[in-house]
From TrEMBL:
Gene3D superfamilies hit by this protein: YVTN repeat-like/Quinoprotein amine dehydrogenase
InterPro entries per record: PEX7, WD40/YVTN_repeat-like_dom_sf, WD40_repeat_dom_sf, WD40_rpt
Gene: PEX7
Keyword Protein transport: yes
Main location class: cytoplasm
Subcellular location: Cytoplasm, Cytosol; Peroxisome matrix
Protein name: Peroxin-7
GO biological process: protein import into peroxisome matrix
Organism listed in the record: Ursus americanus (American black bear)
Length: 124
């Protein structure tokens, strides 16, 4: 994993992973979540990356692996540590970045891959 700074552009390379979605935290300035997948989402696993951005670049704060590609991520509007992701196996995952392992809950609601998600207040 390498981070580089070129002017205002910041890059984070994670070997074997391709980014699908990124979202800044509504609570913590510079906190970023990124949903990734192996093999461009065609096959393989996924990883949720939690990053902090500062003047020196991007720093990996925490990462969570999932058994299928993660295609979207959204932050909770009620809790600064909670995120929801969706994946190629048709499930939604509820994560807590304050915990070292996850997910907190998995909702297997779809029969095919899920490509996007949004936070619905009152659910999480």
């Amino acid at each position: 994993m390498s981070g580089a700074r070129c002017g205002a552009v910041r890059t984070l390379r994670v070997p074997g992973r391709h980014g699908y979605a990124a979202e800044f935290s509504p609570y913590l300035p510079g906190r970023l979540a990124c949903a990734t997948a192996q093999h461009y989402g065609i096959a393989g696993c996924g990883t949720l990356l939690i990053l902090d951005q500062n003047e020196s670049g991007l720093r990996l704060l925490r990462s969570f692996d999932w058994n299928d590609g993660l295609f979207d991520v959204t932050w909770s509007e009620n809790n600064e540590h909670v995120l929801v992701t969706c994946s190629g196996d048709g499930s939604l995952q509820l994560w807590d970045t304050a915990k070292a392992v996850g997910p907190l809950q998995v909702y297997k609601e779809h029969t095919q891959e899920v490509g996007s998600t949004c936070y619905v207040p009152g659910i999480c």
